Amino acid sequence: MSMQGAHSLGGGRSQGVLLSTEEMGRADHLAVELGVPSLTLMENAGAGVAEQARLLLPGGAGRIAVLCGPGNNGGDGFVAARLLQDAGLEVRVALLGNMAALKGDAAEMAARWAGEIVPLTADAIAGADLIIDALFGAGLDRQVTGTAAEAIAALNGSVVPVLAVDVPSGLDGNTGQPLGPVVRASHTVTFFRRKPGHLLMPGRALCSGVTVHDIGTPPEVLDRIASKTWANGPDLWRDAFPWPRLEGHKYGRGHALVVSGAAAHTGAARLGARGALRAGAGLVTLASPENALIVNASQLTAVMLLPFSGPEGLSGILADRRKNAVLLGPALGVGEETRALVEAALAAGAATVLDADALTSFAGHQAELFAAIASIAERPVVLTPHDGEFQRLFPDLVSAAKPERARQAAARSGAVIVLKGPDTVIAAPDGRVAINDNAPPWLATAGAGDVLGGFTVGLLAQRMPAFEAASAAVWLHGAAAAAFGPGLIAEDLPDRLPQVLRGLIDPVP
């Protein structure tokens, strides 16, 4: 089945589902309804923590301080403490609050702990070779203060490895944002599925890597929850990826058009054009203003070149419906002329990617842009703003969490939104969201966004559905940067893409 409009969670796609803290709570309740005792879920969670703790201990041995909070996160910590002590390790438990305040499963697991319990203080970690942070889980909805804040400060001032349970204490599991003081973990272990906060910055950095442990939650609960949020990766879009076929032909792989800026501003469009070609578009043409023809001609080989002048000229090029996808914006200039070019491209009905200047030009003119997008509902449109460009188009959405503001922007605009950054979020008008976490730090380089626009338009030219095309382009972009390594410049990205694509092809038995 095509991935377009598909929401079922079969196969590898289900592994990439992200659950909000509310959805994870529902998953636990559904697991109990399906016959898994809640104490079993907590025992299995604690076992996963203990397993990861032993991997983090230098030489597999040493002293462990387990910091337990008053809720179920603390219950997981008590289980881990018991199992680690049973394995012969020296374990100290420090509790925030008192035993009488514990309730439900957490109280039961605390009662099964036979060792000493000391009050939580900054001194509780003294002499430890590993600290387990089981103070607060992902559902924390208030700022950490008092004794807990002092303990977090002590953890962060220590050189001892810290294993966080579920999320680092003080981190919002839905948004990835700190709620006041937050633990900087050496590693994080979570359960059943990751949460958005594990991928969103700064949560991604504060978690320092996440292990997902199976606690026995029946996988069918995912169909009951029907989450629309995924971690971006090949399992999300592989089935829709337009791999070449033996019987195929370049004319069957689409024709992407990239619009160039004036003579002194041509490089960005060429980066996009090369990206589109490497992404598999059968043909790519650069539409060039007359004054930039010589500059562009001197730099192009496989990419074709056509002159144009103004919106009428662009409309004339796009009247050839074989040119079925267009990228506008990189170094195009800001203002009324660029707005007219965008409106001409949208009116032509080609799949459209709008980036950079094409977005900024509509600051204060958003209604015109969204109306133009609505007029070609049968053709996909992708907007690829960074935070500043997003704020210019959607100034009332900037206070929302990143996935939610991208989701609302997609619904409002009628376009797929690629909200760029180290934690790029891709959102579709129907509410689907993918969060990307494979971008290395050296991807933050001039021109990288232009290549991303090219990857996207190249996949759209091959008629890949817009949400999947945008998600694939973002992931491939990050993977190409990671494959190249430090020292990357934007020109390196298209030429590293073949290596990444080869790695996605299933090996022949």
Describe the structure.
The chain is an alpha/beta fold and 509 residues long. The protein is built from 19 helices and 17 strands. The protein has helices at 21-33, 38-56, 72-86, 104-111, 146-156, 203-207, 221-225, 234-237, 267-278, 293-297, 310-318, 336-348, 357-360, 366-374, 387-393, 402-413, 448-461, 466-484, 492-504; strands spanning 63-68, 90-95, 117-119, 130-134, 162-165, 187-191, 210-213, 229-231, 255-259, 283-289, 304-308, 323-328, 351-354, 381-383, 416-419, 425-427, 433-435. A ten-stranded mixed sheet has the order 8-17-16-15-14-13-12-9-10-11, sandwiched between helices. It has a seven-stranded parallel sheet with strand order 3-2-1-4-5-6-7, covered by helices on one side. Helix 5 (146-156) links the parallel strand 4 (130-134) and strand 5. The model is unreliable at 1-11 (pLDDT under 50).
What's this model, at a glance?
By secondary structure, this protein is an alpha/beta fold.
Instruction: Please state the overall shape, judged from the principal axes of the Cα atoms.
Output: elongated
SSE-based structural type? alpha/beta
Helix content: 25-40%
- What is the average of the pLDDT values? 94
Strand content: 5-15%
Stretches where pLDDT is under 50 for at least 5 consecutive residues are 1-11
Number of helices: 19
Which strand order spans the largest sheet, edge to edge or round the barrel?
A: 8-17-16-15-14-13-12-9-10-11
Major sheet description:
10 strands, mixed
Count of DSSP E strands? 17
Rg on CA atoms, Å = 26 Å
Distance between the termini: 24 Å
